[in-house]
Amino acid sequence: MSNEPATEPTLHFKRVILKLSGESLADSGGRGISAHEAGEIARQIKQAHDTGCEIAIVIGGGNILRGAQFSGSNSLVHEATAHYMGMLATTINSLAMQDALEAQGLETRVMSAIPTEKIAETFIRRRALRHLSKGRVIILAAGIGNPFVTTDTAAAQRALELEADIVLKATRVDGVFSDDPEKNPHAVLYDTLTYTQVIEKKLRVMDGTAIALCSEHNKPILVFNFKQNGNIVRAISGETVGTRIG
Ligand code: UDP
């Protein structure tokens, strides 16, 4: 494919959290899991991992179920229950991503915030750090294990806990825009933003809890388009891509 990084990627960040939405695993309809899409993301992650960067992945569940939406359209299910269902959806995606990554020759571990011992290790910070130091890609399932937040918060929280250099938020658009670029052709793409600008302009970057956590602890966020081939490697290599917040 074209658009691969021009030069050999070098190590810039030592450790990153890569946040993938559940929809990133789906075909264009945004539902289910596509072997092609998962395989393509895994191929890019393998390239990025080859630079020597330690990678922890947080995957969402929106291709299967989001708690807030599901409980809104289904009065039988309590909203908290719906959020737990959403967390299980992230586990389904994490298992798919694990096999996709291992097909690329990577060693991986799924670590879940909700104990599901037959399919994943329970998340333990020190064990996660050990896996990373051994070159394993870890896939963090079930968010933070508590309802009423999204996996954006999990990405921010795990970035703090695991002392990742940055949260890389992979999206289908080129970064953070002044308005929805799919609806407003005049929307402007920002190169950089402060946390205060994100909050004051009510920009939809990550959920509010995630922004608050990153802001309070000065953890940078990069929002970038993973659909552009080579961008995961570029982002991890510290190349100018997307919008940087922090
Ligand atoms: N979720 C939760 N707690 C968490 C992480 C996720 O309750 O720590 C639930 C929440 O309902 C969320 C759903 O799991 O909507 C799926 O995650 P998310 O919406 O982040 O998926 P994405 O939009 O990234 O695909």
Describe this entry's structure for a reader:
- This is Uridylate kinase.
- It comes from Novipirellula herctigrandis.
- The chain is of the alpha/beta class.
- The chain has one domain (15-245): Carbamate kinase (3-Layer(aba) Sandwich).
- It contains eight helices and nine strands.
- The chain has helices spanning 35-49, 67-72, 79-102, 125-133, 151-161, 195-200, 208-217, 231-236; strands at residues 15-20, 54-59, 108-112, 121-122, 137-141, 166-171, 192-193, 221-225, 243-245.
- The radius of gyration is 17 Å and the shape is globular.
- The two termini are 32 Å apart.
- The model has no long low-confidence stretch (mean pLDDT 93).
- Bound molecules: uridine-5'-diphosphate.
- Uridine-5'-diphosphate (UDP) is lined by residues 21-23, 60-62, 66-68, 83, 86-87, 89-90, 143-144, 146-147, 149-151, 153-154.
CATH level-3 fold name: Carbamate kinase
Q: Helical residue percent?
A: 25-40%
User: From the 3D coordinates, which CATH architecture would you assign?
Assistant: 3-Layer(aba) Sandwich
**Between the first and last Cα atoms, what is the distance in angstroms?**
32 Å
Short descriptors:
Carbamate kinase, alpha/beta, 246 residues, binds uridine-5'-diphosphate, 9 strands
